[in-house]
Amino acid sequence: MNPVMSYLHNFFFTVYPYICLAVFFMGSLARFDRDQYTWKTDSSQMLRAGTLRWGSNLFHVGILFLFFGHLVGQLTPHWLYEMFITAPQKQLLAVVAGGIAGGLCFVGLTLLLHRRLFDPRIRLTSHRTDIAILVILWVQLCIGLGTLPSSLHHVSEPTTMLRLAEYLQGIVLMQPNAALVAGVEWHFQAHMLLGMTIFLLFPFSRLVHVWSGFGTLAYVFRPYQVVRSRRLNVPVGQNQPRKPA
Questions:
Q1: How far apart, in whole angstroms, are the C-alpha atoms of residue 36 and residue 105?
Q2: Integer Cα distance of 68 and 210 in angstroms
Q3: Nearest 5°: phi and psi at 98?
């Protein structure tokens, strides 16, 4: 690897992840603090609901499974799960489950992107960032699905999976090691870099509503709301509506 490529490789797999994470957290906080009225999904259900129902459900089921599958699968240390499942078995499980979830997500996301691009009413009410983030997610999903043949080939020798998991765990532990990614197939590297870029773009797109989805869990534990009458200085029991004569 020549010096320029070595520098770029070290930058993108050592420094770039932390730039993306810093923008992800600080940008989300700044947007919530300064632009709460833009913190929404801008649903287009009122314009056409049929395709949205199928596309949204398939996309959300698939993307949530893929997100938590990657989160748990890649960030769980090998020593923690090897007593329950071997590395080849985990690799095969990831290929099968990820393939099914990825297929569902691909169908749903394609439907959502199609209606954004080819429905005139929805296209006119869509922001450029709406279309751009859907295209980026679609490309990311295609690259991820494109890694399945290689991942299936690695079932008998899951060295690549273990190297990628060790690299991502090093990012979390503030001990990045870009050498673990060197020599890995290009589509795995592209998949990781585009995934980091999605975190970078997250605060500037409608994806911020994901935070609200996790925030709804707080409703289970919050106390009851106390509703008070807006009519001031009225004795208790006398602020009821008058009965008709």
A1: 29
A2: 13
A3: -65, -35
pLDDT of residue 38: 76
| Sequence-ordered list of residues with C-beta below 8 angstroms from that of 57, at least 6 positions apart, any chain | 108
Give 37: exposed, middle or buried? Use CB within 10 Å, 0-12, 13-18, 19+. exposed
d(CA 105, CA 71): 17
Percent of residues, the chain, with pLDDT higher than 70: 83
What is the amino acid identity at position 225?
Answer: Q
CB 184 within 8 A of CB 151: no
Query: Residues 153-162: contacts with CB within 8 Å, 24+ apart?
Result: 154/91, 155/88, 155/91, 155/92, 155/95, 156/88, 158/87, 158/88, 158/90, 158/91, 160/184, 160/185, 160/188, 161/87, 161/90, 161/91, 161/94, 162/78, 162/87
- pLDDT cut 90: percent of the chain above it: 48
**Ramachandran area for residue 183 (φ above 0: left; ψ -120 to 50: alpha; else beta):** left
